[in-house]
Amino acid sequence: MAGHSKWANIQHRKGRQDAKKAKFFTKAAKDIILAAKAGGGNPDDNSTLRLAIQKAKAVNLPKDKIDNAIKKGTGELAGGDLAEVMYEGYGPGGVAMLVEVATDNKNRTVAEIRHAFTKHGGNMAENGAVSYMFNRKGVIVFNGEKYTEDELMEAGLEAGADDIVEDGETFIVYTEPADFMAVQQAFADAGMEYESAEFNQVPENLVPVDAAVGKKVMNLFDALEDNDDTQNVYMNADLPDDLFDEED
User: Fold this and answer.
1) Residue 137 reports pLDDT greater than 60
2) Is 144 helix (H, G, I), strand (E, B) or coil?
């Protein structure tokens, strides 16, 4: 299997931004707070919280911080006054973008997000103008050198996986949100280790851009990711491989 993985390239860029900002812990804790606030503090009854805890453990968030984040979400401790907001906009080349934030001050955050869009050649859009181009999915990523597509299909499809897509050196398994935990468990039961597992806003179609526009798109992407309140940025850009080659 050869070639680049556009998904992996974007995730690498996101990871590099997170490391630069030391945001791993903050993002993980906010995810837990929001999940506990929405569905309660028992991960056995709250699949979103269970996933948030898994991701927090993956970035080595200490247990006491995990416990405190749950208590903030349930109101047992102060500090859980966060709102989850999805902002929509367009980047250079007409690329659609969603910005998922967790904030304690919506006025501050929306002003900062709008400034980032404007500064980098984009513009914010009304609610619903962009979000219809994306679908919320469970996304489980495997190293394509460790497993074959047939092996993944055998373990995942019966548990509810929607689709398995080869992307460069990875396989990406998509699920409906309601089936995500069952599919994840099916792979675990089969002894199959994944690279990552998370909920994602998956674009229905990709917009091809050339390297020049791609650089502008990624500058905007970085600026949005760099905001302290940003949890995730999603977009439908189909970026050229050589854009990432230049960064290696």
Assistant:
1) yes
2) coil
**Residues 208, 199: Cα–Cα separation, whole Å:** 24
Contact 53, 66 (CB under 8 A): yes
Nearest alpha-carbon partner for 146 in 175, 170, 174, 180: 170
| b/e per residue 225-236 (b: at least 16 CB within 10 A) | bbbebbbbbbbb
Structure-token match 């995500």, residue found? 180
Alpha carbon 74 to its chain's center: 24
User: What are the pLDDT digits (tens) for 49-99?
Assistant: 999 999 899 888 999 999 999 999 999 999 889 999 999 999 999 999 999
Domains and CATH numbers, the chain: 6-74 (1.10.10.200), 84-132+205-245 (3.30.70.980), 134-203 (3.30.70.980)
Q: How far is 73 from 31, CA to CA, in rounded Å?
A: 10
Chain centroid to CA 175: how far? 14
* Amino acid (1-letter code) at residue 133: M
